[in-house]
Every structure is written in structure tokens, then in C-alpha cells.
Design a protein that fits this description.
Length: about 70
Amino acid sequence: VGEINLAKNGAYDPSTNEITWTVTVAPTVATDDIVGYKLVDTYSSNQTYVAGSFKVGTTAIPEEGIVKGVSS
């Protein structure tokens, strides 16, 4: 299994009180895919996941493909 580079950036919109997070995942070597990796991003109890907001590129990921959780 190869390694991947991760980057996470957030942009806060005070008019909606929402943060839009962008997470970039990139393999360190040329590969066709990154099958077998799991990305975990646990949010705090004062944050709420917005249904339908998770996308890969411009493709929305169905809610049944997302496991939501909150850190305590």
C-alpha cells in the first residue's frame, strides 16, 4: 500500500454560519486509484454535518455511503 498526501482547508461564511471544508487526497506515486483507504474527519459537538454536502470532485456522495460521528 502506498502513501497519500492530505490537506484540509476551511472557509467560513458568516452570513450562513457555515464552514466549507476542502480535503485534498493525493497518492505520492502514480496509481490508478486509492482503493482501500479510509478518510476519517471527526467534527466537534458544536458542529453539524450538512446532509448532501460531501462531494468527490463535483459528484455528491449518497448519504448511505457516509458514516457520521461527533467527537466528545
